[in-house]
Amino acid sequence: MNVHIAAKSPLHETVTTTATDYWNDSCSIEELQYAIENGAVGATSNPTIVGEVLQKELPLWRDRIEQLIAASPVATEDEIAWQLIEEMAVKASQLLLPVFEREGGLKGRLSIQTSPKLYRDADRLVEQGLRFAGLAPNMQVKVPATRAGIAAIEELTAQGVNVNATVCFTVPQALAVGEAVERGLERRGGASGMSPVCTIMVGRLDDWLEIAAAKSGTLLTPGVVNWAGIACAKRAYPIYRERGFRTRLLAAAYRNHLHWSELIGGDIVLTIPHKWQLLFNASDVEVVPRFDNPVPAEALDELRARSPEFLRAYEPDGMTVDEFDGYGATVRTLRGFIASYQDLVAAIRDFMLPSPD
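Predicted structure:
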């Protein structure tokens, strides 16, 4: 029986033979169906993803967008955009309900992201997070690991909301998230029914370190930065275990197969875009646990010696909470998410105010 299951696909083998789970890094219905068939137990969304889904599946949403606009005659384009974001999330969450029910609520959730513009406002993040949590029984609320976001994560957890920390790239951020969730769980009185996760955007950290090296005129050995995000995930994991954090780590932002293959075996979640799922499932990469394998010493030594931005990300005390908002990967990602949100609003504008030119 196990041989038959393992033969279905490399990703299916990953989740059926190791402690590692995977999610679909999109709320696209077609892509989520594929992922569930290959063993996925969750999915996620953000402004970039929603915009991409709208482009791919516009015929499925065109009539509904027009209905939303007609039904809300005084709504702004932003309000219509959020109605669309919420509807996409709820529609995708329904596909995951069987997993949610089978797993007693510990898996089968759809992550919906709070507005990237609210990264400085804990109160409004909490307000929006509470609304999102009530949209469906299996919602997970994404909150940025910014200074305000850490406070919001504690408060939402205390109020029984399952959080997914996003805009997180570093060990210090992951530890701050784990501590905030623990404070929230203590205030709540326990972790029953809770399955909080903390994302480490491994590929986005790699991207930033490459940019930072170029800006500083530092020549790194080709491929070395590909280990940076993996190194941070493998550094945070044992600290989570040692401190008894009840948050589960999650790896996101895929750039190469190491972001899957090197993390197989850890009791973590991998949230994988559809294009990478197809590549991984078509590959001949052997599915064996590698999470406990150390990062190659030469790569880690070079990063520590030549990349100050890596040290800030890798060392548990590399940054304070007050420094999170100014970290390069944080700034780049927030700017990207805000821009994607604005693109989505512009797409709604084209429905509400079609260009007469």
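Summary: Residues 165 and 198 are 5 Å apart (CA to CA).
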